[in-house]
Write a structure and sequence with these properties.
Length: 406
């Protein structure tokens, strides 16, 4: 369907982590709040609007943030709490929206195309926003327009805790006075490149020939130019909580070697965690499966706070395996599945860690991207000699990562 005929809503929970903490402790309302690693070497995962007035932003070193706002209240954060409230909002939207896409723990798209005939999309979206605030206590903003890009930018302009509609035909006028930094996919590096070209406002992009942007930035230049002109035909992709990635190992010879089994599970979990981070996703459920030599198959799973960190997933996998492996007979197959995936930064689970751990993950993943998934592994996982390098998030259904015999 042409984007001009669509009604797309983008909803975003305002300063989500901070809002959750304020629900727990009302004394935090109106005060500058920093959430993240509490040591000087920690990083800011989220901050309140009051803290932003001091120039503080997410990913800033905590030491620098405290220097800018000495009176800020620092909270380590609790990913379990944030997962709980994210799920509450998801359930409300799931019930109300015909098609919805959950793009992170605090961000949603909805396609309300055709509902104007019955409700009026703006009225329906506004009532849904009021319901979310009433039932969860969380502030939330939304933008409504004919496409995802304009709606997302409109949400940003509506914040904090408000709403905005951009009517069909007014997209370019709405976008033109805004900074090019507002365009999704324009990160800091691209923004600096555009500034060097004398491009700071979206209107400048709108007035440029698309060929000039292609010449300067290649394929991305054309995409940025298209978004700057308020054009985006991308669909709202129905969210499915059962979406998962998994990997299995079938043995040539059935085994009872616990050392070998735990080593392979460690390597498998480590690789799946890396695949999540590479795709910028986090999971909320971990499952382990065993098939014995008599083909009896058993599995166990556990819901967890959203994460893609090795140090969260690997110990849980080994714990589940220990609970599951009770027959003490030969094992034919073992498998791991990570499910309930959403887009998100794996640092959501690193509130209690310092920035060195986040830097370590980044360095490890960079090495694997360049030299291969098995170029850097834990010593405890060396027993697993083969781990598939197939990326489940590119071009194939993300249900099966690998099924190899070892």
């Amino acid at each position: 369907m042409n984007s001009d005929n669509r009604a797309i809503v983008h909803m975003d929970l305002d300063t989500f982590f901070v809002s959750c903490e304020r629900l727990i402790d009302s004394r935090l309302v109106g005060k500058p709040i920093l959430i993240g690693g509490t040591s000087d070497r920690g990083v800011v995962a989220s901050c309140s609007y009051e803290a932003r007035l001091f120039g503080i932003h997410s990913a800033m070193p905590m030491k620098m943030a405290k220097e800018r706002c000495p009176d800020a209240i620092i909270i380590k954060g609790n990913s379990g709490t944030y997962t709980k409230y994210s799920n509450m909002v998801t359930e409300i939207i799931k019930e109300a929206a015909p098609v919805y896409e959950k793009t992170s723990v605090d961000e949603f798209y909805m396609d309300l195309t055709g509902m104007d005939k019955f409700f009026g999309c703006l009225k329906y979206s506004s009532e849904l926003r009021q319901r979310i605030m009433r039932e969860t206590g969380l502030p939330i903003s939304f933008g409504l327009s004919p496409n995802k890009t304009v709606s997302k930018i409109a949400t940003g302009e509506a914040k904090p805790n408000n709403q905005m509609q951009v009517s069909r035909g007014t997209e370019r006028v709405f976008l033109s006075p805004l900074s090019v930094r507002k365009i999704p996919m324009v990160g800091l590096k691209t923004y600096q490149t555009l500034c060097n070209l004398g491009i700071r406002k979206i209107q400048t992009l709108q007035d440029m020939p698309v060929e000039m942007m292609e010449s300067a930035l290649g394929k991305n230049g054309k995409m940025i130019w298209t978004k700057a002109n308020g054009i985006d035909n991308s669909p709202v992709v129905q969210y499915n909580e059962r979406k998962s990635i998994s990997t299995e190992r079938t043995f040539d010879r059935d085994t009872i070697d616990i050392y070998k089994l735990t080593a392979i599970l460690t390597a498998m979990a480590e690789n799946l965690s890396f695949q999540l981070r590479r795709a910028e996703k986090v999971c909320a459920c971990v499952s382990v499966k065993i098939r014995y030599s008599d083909f009896q198959t058993q599995s166990i799973q556990k819901r967890i706070p959203y994460t893609a960190a090795d140090h969260d997933i690997i110990p849980l996998v080994l714990e589940l395996f220990k609970k599951l492996y009770t027959r003490r007979v030969l094992v034919r197959l073992i498998g791991i599945r990570l499910s309930h995936l959403v887009n998100g930064n794996h640092q959501i689970s690193l509130f209690d860690e310092n920035s060195k751990l986040a830097d370590l993950y980044s360095a490890m993943d960079t090495i694997r991207d360049r030299y291969g998934d098995r170029s850097l592994v834990r010593a405890s996982g060396l027993e697993a000699r083969t781990i598939g390098r197939y990326n489940p998030f590119k071009g194939e259904p993300p249900m099966l990562l690998a099924n190899r015999r070892v």
